[in-house]
Amino acid sequence: MSAPRTPTKSAGSKESESRNSRGSIGPAGTPPIGSGKRRSTAGSQLGSPVARSGTASVASPSGTRDKLNSATLKQNATSPVPAVKSATERVEIAENAQFLPSGIHTIFISSATQQAMQLCVDEDLTQENNAKMIDKEILLNDIQTNGQGSNFYEFQQQIQNYPENEIAIIYDYDYFYSQNFLICFDPKLKKFIENPPVTLPIQESDEVEQYVPPVPKKWISLGSEVEIDNERLILNRSLKSFKIKVPTRISTTLTPNEKFKDVDPDIDRKKNFISIEQYDDKQFDLRKMELDLAIQAAPEHRENFSQTIWRYPKNQWTQYEARSFTEDEKAKSMTDPELINMVVTSKDLFKEALQQNIIHDPFYIDWNELGGNLDGLGGPGDSHLKEYQSFSSIKQSRDKIVTCVQWHPTLRGIIAVSLAAGQGFDERTDNLSRINTSPPLILIWSFVDPIQPKLYLEAPDDIQCFQFSPTDPHIIAGGCVNGQIVMWDIKEYEERIRNPRGDHRDKDLFIPGFEDENFFQTPHIRFCAVSSIEHGHSEPITDLQWIPDHYQVTAQGLPTENLAMNCSQIMTCAFDNQVLFWETRVPRAGVKPLSKKEREIINPMGVPLTFKHLDLIWKPFLRVTLQSPETGTVEFAPRKFSIRETQGDRDVLNQEDKELFEKKKDTSLGQFVNPLDDPNKTLSQAKAKVLQNVDTFFYIGTEDGQLVYQDWMPQKDQDSTKFFTPKAAWSTIVVDGPVVALKRSPFFKDVILVAGGWMFQIWREKIHSGSLLHAAPLKEKITDVEWSPTRPGVFYISKQNGSIDIWDIIDRTHDASISQSISSSSVTFLSIKVISSKQQLLAAGDSNGTLHILEVPWALRQPVNQELNLVTNYLERETERRAFVKHRWDLREEEKREKERLATMKAGIAPSHISTQEEIDIRMKSEYNEFLQFEFGVLREMGLRDENEAPTVTPAAT
Amino acid sequence: MTQAEVDDTLKRIQEHKGVQGYLIINNDGIPIRSNLDASLTQQYAALIKSLSDKARSTIREIDPTNELVFFRMRTKKHEILVAPEKEYTMIVLQATDVQ
């Protein structure tokens, strides 16, 4: 109890404090070491009163101890290892009480007392806050009230002796000192408890991780060194050394003396024998599949240069001469037997080769000659007409039929169409009194604008036929139903026609808001002249043609040279038995030109004055009145005509020039004068040369299907000295309906295609015994025909059912090669135009007012190899046939006459005919007349006889 | 065989239909006899000679035992007949468009 307090002990109490605050590591060293030391020191101080009292105090609350022990024992039963641990703990706890400082005692305070003194465990006191001060009085009161039952009873004396008022009670959380509380009776310690050293927690917090190397403590001798010395082994004699050597084994490889022997593993298995089988180790069964490799090729680079020597250029030349032998040398060579031998041996070779070439040409290529025919009709190429474009004016084309289609002679892609009401004669007469508000029109279309025509040409009445002037394309002449000829001049609008863009879309031309409405509308052009009603035709004009520019016709019907070389004359025909010739030029006694003012008055419609001089007073200058060949028959009502000369064909002129040239050469002997340069010549018609070679005969197709061969040159009536048209030279009925087309072949001037009704025929001029080609009647009525301009043997026939037949007389002559439907309504007019060498367009107008433009396929455009020859031969053959037929006719006639004569002789009605002298005379005279006729014809052809002179024919009779 | 015979042969060849001319040249391409005009003779002699040499070597190359005897060339205007012998070559021109 009164044990001297040593610094060590205080340190130990301190340690206990640190122990109480569990987990905290004391700065004075690790507890086990410290405690171990203390133990040893305690061991050395065994039997101290504190320890004893500690153990004695333990005895009283042994019940709780036992409880605790039993609990630990129970634990031991379940797990022996912790049992061992707890056993040692118990020993430790028992021992721990010894280390308490002298002023502190362990005490057990029951829970009731705890409540009374406000010392409840885990409420008032916790592990951390484990000290409380309690008044001495309270403790003494507790002892007084409870007597021996009081927990503080054993410390009554010490409490009473305690100098201070308050006594510190410390809560021992884990029974480290074997009881739950400690009580302190040492005021110094109490102070220490009240104010625990503050350095400890500060050091804790600051240097938790700091390593403080342990400092060895000063060794205090307590007698252990003697024990160590006693234990020490001291060598008192010298050590003995031995050397033991084990014989080294010699390597087996170096000792061939080692004997190996075969051992049977099955038998000697037990004798430490292991056989190791070889096997594939799966661990190393990885195969290298992909390999990354990189190679870099470094280009080898080398620089090299060389220099060429540039020599100074020098002009050099050499001259050489072909080697040749002199005559002597040649002669010498010629006598060389070798040469002679050579010539003789090769003679046969040459002969063979030469003869071969003459007999048969081995290099003749048959295929080259065959070629063309394959591409003809029926060949592989497409031979159908292709629709290229079609023009139909919604407003204007309604209920109208196309009467005529004409291509513009010079401008490409411009085509004019005349539309007329599709009325019959009766309808027309019925409607005659009605005023037609919309004048009949000719529409001029451009290929660039298929919607709106470029121009409208207004006509006084329905136009049946019209034509552009071939030399002045801005002038158009048309033939009306009322028998008038109408002239237009579209010169002012040529630019408009030519303009490839549709004018009505040219809105950019105008400033917005200032558009000229009229500009966008298709202009209506009034005609500038119509012919006089009285002097013209009295029936609808059915055909109209400009006379070609290389000649003109005089009032006497003489074809003369046209020095102006432009078309000025028009030829027309109508049902009124007339073919009329019209002159468009101002007559020589010309009207003087009008002043501007006058012009304005006269010309209110803005019509060009080109033909002002003709308007309403225009008369034909030549009339060809057709007479019926025999009295009593119907007079010819011409519907179509065809003249021999064609526009642009200068053959006649050339021929004239040639003749003239020859003549001049003959007469003037070298004093050749170019007729055109002849100063005597003027532009007057009178002095223009008569062209002998122009044929004044022409063909007329009539309403009744006749073909008439007529001379337009009037003849002088001997009695009245008046000129009248001669009778038709020849006429016959060729087709079974009105002639609708009479067209000359563009290749053969004398070949005429005539069509009408359901038939068509090909005739040759002056071969009047019959047609060259007479096809079987077609199933549909023919409306028009057109020759192909490039293929001599091809022509197109349009029919009333809206189809076009294409005939190729090289392919077949009995039937059309191709028949193609073009329109749902009747095709009324055909017109073909060669646009370029690669394009040919066929314009077909129908009775709905629509104009179809069809592209002619290659096969119908491109002549077959030698086609012209073939067609010529064909026509020649047919002509010969006609001659033969005629010959046969004559023969038959002769036979017939002979038969009749014999018959009459047999009958005895008349004696066998013995011609009297008179009869013989008459016959001879008629023969002579025939001769005279023939002679006149010959002379006229030769130009030796005047044209107007009639052949002197002596009357055959009397 | 005399020179007269040669003349006769040449005359006969000349009489064939379409024959325009002949010429005989030696191995060096020098014309010995010709009825063509001088410049044409020179040209034919030089050019046909080299051609026939080439043709001969071609035939020899293919078969060394073979020998070129005669060849004909067809052109648009005429046929050229060539008979190359050892020392001399004979050429005849014949018009092809005889008919």
Automatic annotation (TrEMBL), chain A:
Q: Where is this region: Disordered?
A: 1-83
One GO biological process this protein is involved in is: cilium movement involved in cell motility
Pfam families referenced in this protein's UniProt entry, alphabetically = WD40
Question: Which Gene3D superfamilies does the record match to this protein?
Answer: YVTN repeat-like/Quinoprotein amine dehydrogenase
Keywords assigned? Cytoplasm, Repeat, WD repeat
Kindly indicate whether the keyword Transmembrane helix belongs to this entry.
no
Stretches of Polar residues bias are at 1-11, 54-79
Which SMART domains does this UniProt record tie to the protein?
Answer: WD40 (SM00320)
Q: Where are the transmembrane segments?
A: none
Q: Which GO terms describe its molecular function?
A: dynein heavy chain binding; dynein light chain binding
Give the superkingdom in one word.
Eukaryota
Under which name does UniProt file this protein? WD repeat-containing protein 63
Q: Which organism is it from?
A: Rotaria sordida
Automatic annotation (TrEMBL), chain B:
* Swiss-Prot/TrEMBL GO biological process terms: microtubule-based movement
Q: Which domain of life is it from?
A: Eukaryota
> Where would one find the signal peptide in this protein?
none
The subcellular location is: Cytoplasm, Cytoskeleton
Q: Name one Pfam family in it.
A: Robl_LC7
Keyword Transport recorded: yes
Q: Does the keyword Cell membrane apply?
A: no
Q: Name one GO cellular component term.
A: cytoplasm
Instruction: Pinpoint the Roadblock/LAMTOR2 domain residues.
Output: 6-94
Q: Which UniProt keywords apply?
A: Cytoplasm, Cytoskeleton, Dynein, Microtubule, Motor protein, Transport
State the family named in the UniProt similarity comment for this chain.
Belongs to the GAMAD family.
Q: What does this protein do?
A: Acts as one of several non-catalytic accessory components of the cytoplasmic dynein 1 complex that are thought to be involved in linking dynein to cargos and to adapter proteins that regulate dynein function. Cytoplasmic dynein 1 acts as a motor for the intracellular retrograde motility of vesicles and organelles along microtubules.
Task: State the name under which the record lists this protein.
Answer: Dynein light chain roadblock
Q: Which organism is it from?
A: Rotaria sordida
